[in-house]
Amino acid sequence: MPAAPRAINNIQTVIEQLSVAGSDQQRLEIIESVPIDLTELRPYHHYGSSSYGRNLIYTGVGFEIILLCWQPQQYSTPHDHQGSLCIMKCISGELTEQRYQLQAKAVNNCILSPTERVTFCDGEVTSITDQQGLHKLGNETAAEACSLHFYFPPIHSANAYNEQDGSQKTVLSVFTSEYGVKTAVTATEKVKLQSVS
Ligand SMILES: [Fe+2]
Question: What is the domain count for the chain?
């Protein structure tokens, strides 16, 4: 009797390949080339109660992987990446990225100048560094959307900016789930800690 076909876990393949990647270009090519669909990400597919879901899949010395789950009309705030390389792969639905250049006016009070605006759909990949600017992401559609975010190295906080008045604050990473297990975040913590993507 022939053996049943072995299920291919592509996210594990990506983790193994990224662990030995030697350059940002290689990292980008690995993430672009390996197809990943929502079926294998089911343990991490959770939406947030008051914001988009942030689901930690993997974290290591060199990088981390987070699945973001967006309900219609949910957006991040404009933010930087604290020196990390951020690579995003759209897994399902459509997500729109608005980029900005930051013009410092005074401490904690800046002007954000909008630059590129691009919409991504299934399988498409983009990347950003602080040298390239800030960005915000959002789901402008009427359907749910999911995106994988890879950070090299892992990112634990970010500077978030108010689009209207340019005020800046530091926000910490919080997760809707970690390694497939939903986290318990108190209402007080939700007020204090805002998500970044
Ligand atoms: Fe981001």
Answer: 1
Instruction: State pLDDT tens for residues 68-103.
Output: 999 999 999 999 999 999 999 999 999 999 999 988
| DSSP symbols for 84-95 | -EEEEEEEES-E
C-alpha of residue 79 to centroid of ligand 1, in Å = 6
Task: Report the Cα 21 to chain-centroid distance in Å.
Answer: 20
Q: What is the pTM of this model?
A: 0.89
Kindly give the distance from the C-alpha atom of residue 86 to the centroid of ligand 1, in angstroms, as a whole number.
6
In a domain, 2, yes or no: no
Evaluate whether 85 touches 151 at the Cβ level (below 8 Å): yes
Ligand 1 center from residue 91 Cα (angstroms): 16
